[in-house]
């Protein structure tokens, strides 16, 4: 329609004009405005600049809004950053607390196991070197073993000293030096201990055969056998097998019984490589552990271990084959004989003796008396204040008891 006053046609919105005027005019930019008097399409005056009615656009917008947007519109709900998931719906089930903690503990255990395994492999590789036995050791062939032994004295009746678990021939030195004044004294390293060559099986039968072969190899006739702790089982078994080759028998801090002592059978399945190797080497290489065990077993009457003393106890566990020997002995447990077999010693004619430390916590208080009755020995000798390592803490009393037994030796 032409304005009669100025003859100018009214401004028509341009197609690219999206300003307020285009919206207010309600005219789509891409279609011409209908002429005056022409009928407008129904709802045309309700459409916006996009050609859709406000009502329809609002419906589409409401339909397209995600649930997260509705959650953000609620009071107290923080806005969710773009590109992130919205809040967990209220109806979604939550894991029980114990399952969450179990998952955390499982992951922690897995990480610790991986770290422990890695440390074990590295530590074992770093400590894989073995030490050499001391120079000047003496050996003798005893069946399938090369047995290391020590000898003291040059005259008198023979005495053979047999050590206990985790000991060696060197443990007998304080007693042997006293006995050597009137006797020929010998101490050997049993299979699996000291510096004797190691060969399975590490059981009592093998040790007994080694001991009897040792007597034959050195030509010892009817020696007095002294067995400390678990070494009592070896001398008892030797005396029962060959009573005519033994001149006397002393149980020192030992009952020679098969009590099943030692780690349970499941131990070797639980403590496996590489962890058992790591544990053993950590223990053996610790001066504190060696001194603590020594002090607990020896008591206040024993001299304190200096560096040389610690090395004397440690070194046999670091030579080639020592670790396999230790695990082999643990497999069989502490050697011993059943009670009915031990009672057969009563019928042997050899003199017998039982000597215990009065404060020995390894055995019960009445163990010494019971052991003496079991093997047919006189009342036991109890050394006041001594614990399990009487051969170190009370060497003079032990030597005196051995000399008394040697005086009654069967010639």
| Computed CA radius of gyration, to the nearest angstrom | 46 Å
Order of helices and strands: HHHHEEEHEHEHEHHHHHHEHEHH
User: Helix proportion of residues, in percent?
Assistant: 25-40%
What is the typical, i.e. mean, pLDDT? 83
Looking at CATH, which topology of the domain at 138-407 would you report?
Rossmann fold
* Top-tier CATH class of the domain at 138-407: Alpha Beta
Major sheet: order of its strands?
Answer: 1-2-4-3-5-6-7-8
Question: What percent strand?
Answer: 5-15%
Q: Main beta sheet, described?
A: 8 strands, mixed
Q: Any low-confidence stretches, pLDDT <50, length ≥5?
A: 1-39, 41-69
| Secondary-structure arrangement, i.e. CATH architecture of the domain at 138-407 | 3-Layer(aba) Sandwich
Give the CA-based shape: elongated
How far from one another are the termini?
A: 153 Å
Structure, explained:
- With 411 residues, this protein is an alpha/beta fold.
- It has a domain at 138-407: Alpha/Beta hydrolase fold, catalytic domain (Rossmann fold, 3-Layer(aba) Sandwich), CATH 3.40.50.1820.
- It is built from 16 helices and 8 strands.
- It has helices at residues 20-25, 54-64, 67-73, 97-126, 173-179, 204-218, 231-241, 267-270, 275-284, 287-298, 307-314, 322-332, 339-342, 367-375, 390-393, 395-407, and strands at 138-142, 145-152, 158-162, 184-188, 224-228, 248-252, 352-357, 381-383.
- An 8-stranded mixed β-sheet has the order 1-2-4-3-5-6-7-8, sandwiched between helices.
- Helix 6 packs across helix 7.
- Residues 1-39 and 41-69 have low confidence and may be disordered.
